[in-house]
Amino acid sequence: MYNLDTRRNALRLVASGRSLNSVSRETGISRSTLRDWRAHGIEPLGPGSRPLRTDGPAYPYLLGLYLGDGCLSAHRRGVYVLRIACADAWPGLADACEAAIRAVRPGGAVCRVRQQGCAQITSTSKRWPAVFPQHGSGRKHERKITLEPWQQDAVDAYPWEFIKGLVHSDGCRITNWTERIVAGVRKRYEYPRYFFTNTSADIRRLYTDTLDALGVSWTETRRRGDAHNVSVARRASVAVMDRHVGPKN
What we know:
single chain, 4-stranded antiparallel sheet, 8 strands
């Protein structure tokens, strides 16, 4: 067993950008142990506790939902409550959110709290801050939001799940239309597009950086003078988004 100071020091070295090999050589802690601490936190697990899972597609999806419509709230005895708001207009979203939470926290209880127009999907754990280090006081758009290196690795492994989580929380797929006169005849043209709207420039940048890595074209559009909206409108990029994300349901 390693004490908490040793664990914190090791994670500080990893977070500084050093490789697991070099930190392992310096500290004598195995790479697998360092990898587990990076993914699941450094607090020793209590009897019967299970680590949170961040090594599959469910975590990047849940991370996207959390950055969009989620929060952590401190409870008693060091327990934190994860809450993610899922609008009633998209009934399948609550099911997808609950499934992702159960995959990240195997065996944990998940509850639905009814509120006007939405359901709060909730789950408690002492370890939620370890997998959502973006937690902090104040609103997300009022503080710096960046991904830890291990989180970026998770997003890089499953980028479409991250995009899907962000779109399912703060995005939508809509159909625009216009009319044109062609050979004297008025014709109606329809074209779909994706919108993502978030006040945090950092969260929008995480979204657009991932789109860039996937080769998806996007533009930033202004509403009331503020560029809080990211639009994907080019036909080829919309087709790719349709294959991997699709409309909410």
